[in-house]
Design brief:
By secondary structure, the chain is α+β, with helices and mostly antiparallel strands. It contains 3 helices and 3 strands; from the N terminus they run ββαβαα. The radius of gyration is 14 Å and the shape is globular. The relative contact order is 0.23.
Length: about 90
């Protein structure tokens, strides 16, 4: 009998709020659950922008890689950088 392996993936995601015309960048293991939490108001920093829409994501094999990418995007502090990511797909 073979071994069963579970691959845990981590995601960097970008949400958009039409109400606030703002982007939010984060990371998670489960995008759908995280999006539900943002839209339920469970995250104070995104509560006022509800509803949020998932508009972009990237997948990583380690938490460290996802965190590094999240920090990289956030450190740009640039709406135009995020919009360039979106344009590239």
């Amino acid at each position: 009998m073979g071994a069963i392996f579970f691959v845990i993936m981590y995601y960097v995601y970008i949400l958009y709020s039409h109400i606030r015309d703002r982007y939010y960048v984060g990371y998670t293991q489960d995008i759908s659950v995280r999006l539900m939490k943002h839209n339920a108001g469970a995250t104070p920093s995104t509560r006022s922008g509800r509803p949020w829409e998932l508009i972009y994501s990237e997948c990583y094999g380690t938490k460290e890689a996802a965190l590094a990418r999240e920090r990289e995007i956030k450190m740009k502090k640039s709406r135009s950088y995020i919009e360039q990511l979106l344009a590239k797909g």
